[in-house]
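Regression test case RT-17, inverse folding.

Input:
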């Protein structure tokens, strides 16, 4: 054991370090007032690609954001190296409040929500008329998710050269959803893209659909300078192959709008959806709910909507459509 003399020199004294650190911790975080605004284009294994002043910048989420995640379509504040040069990495320090959030769950029994895209104002539901066969229940679920998120739905029917669209359009006609019908030749000569592009002008549109329905093929026609890989339908299972593995936001020619291509889905859980909000997509039926019993599901014997329709205030087909959408939360897509 070392002993010190009466007047030891300072160099001989060993000072134990402060176990709590030499600098006191603080909850005050930098404001990053000089941060630049960016749009998240895609997310890949924790790295986010953002568009900042016309440049593509790779970034990561700042530690102070905690568990808060940024998704495709988010408006973010970015600091650090914003040159976009190779091997550079910026930092996302804030995520702006979202105007809309499209969510889904893996199944109706799964309470964990997955954010598909943020800040979109239109949802294009793409389905093939054949190869693979259309899945009306999946379309219904996407419609419910769109109404719940406040997005305007758009129905896009592909491969009309293989089957007629009449029966499917008759089923959804009472919903008043705008639609487009396309075929292989129209996609090849660009006429389909021109017609669809008019509906997308000035908007941010998310494209969703089952694998193999031609969703990415249509996106490639809309944005020809950013071709994405496309796949084919398995002849045995009738299912498409997942060629799009991550969502990607692409600007339409002439900066006339944005399209977001998303990976193909095989299920669209609605655990997060409050059924009482679905009625808001039927403004002609909303006044009729004033006399409904408390917590009415709008699909029970005492529902006032039956009398509302009987009195001629709304089309019976509209009430049928509402109840069909409400029922999608109680059954799976393949039923």
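Golden output:
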């Amino acid at each position: 054991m070392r002993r010190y003399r009466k007047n030891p020199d300072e160099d001989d004294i060993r000072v134990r370090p402060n176990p709590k650190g030499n600098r006191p911790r603080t909850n005050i975080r930098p404001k990053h007032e000089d941060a630049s605004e960016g749009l998240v284009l895609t997310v890949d294994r924790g790295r986010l690609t953002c568009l900042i002043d016309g440049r593509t910048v790779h970034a990561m989420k700042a530690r102070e954001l905690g568990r808060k995640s940024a998704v495709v379509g988010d408006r973010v504040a970015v600091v650090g190296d914003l040159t976009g040069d190779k091997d550079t990495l910026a930092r996302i320090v804030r995520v702006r409040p979202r105007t809309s959030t499209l969510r889904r769950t893996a199944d109706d029994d799964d309470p964990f929500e997955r954010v598909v895209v943020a800040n979109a104002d239109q949802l294009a539901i793409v389905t093939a008329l054949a190869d693979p066969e259309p899945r009306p229940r999946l379309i219904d679920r996407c419609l419910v998710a769109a109404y719940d998120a406040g997005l305007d739905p758009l129905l896009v029917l592909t491969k009309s050269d293989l089957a007629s669209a009449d029966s499917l359009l008759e089923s959804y006609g009472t919903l008043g959803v705008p639609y487009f019908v396309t075929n292989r030749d129209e996609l090849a000569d660009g006429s389909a893209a021109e017609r669809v592009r008019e509906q997308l002008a000035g908007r941010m549109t998310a494209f969703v659909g089952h694998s193999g329905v031609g969703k990415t093929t249509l996106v490639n026609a809309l944005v020809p300078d950013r071709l994405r890989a496309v796949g084919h339908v398995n002849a045995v299972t009738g299912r498409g192959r997942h060629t799009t593995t991550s969502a990607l936001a692409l600007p339409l020619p002439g900066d006339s709008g944005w399209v977001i291509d998303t990976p193909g889905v095989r299920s669209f859980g609605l655990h997060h959806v409050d059924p009482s909000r679905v009625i808001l997509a039927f403004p002609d039926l909303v006044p009729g709910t004033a006399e409904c019993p408390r917590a009415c599901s709008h699909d029970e014997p005492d529902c006032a909507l039956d009398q509302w329709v009987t009195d001629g205030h709304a089309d019976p087909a509209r009430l049928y459509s509402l109840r069909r959408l409400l029922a999608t939360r109680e059954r799976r897509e393949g039923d």
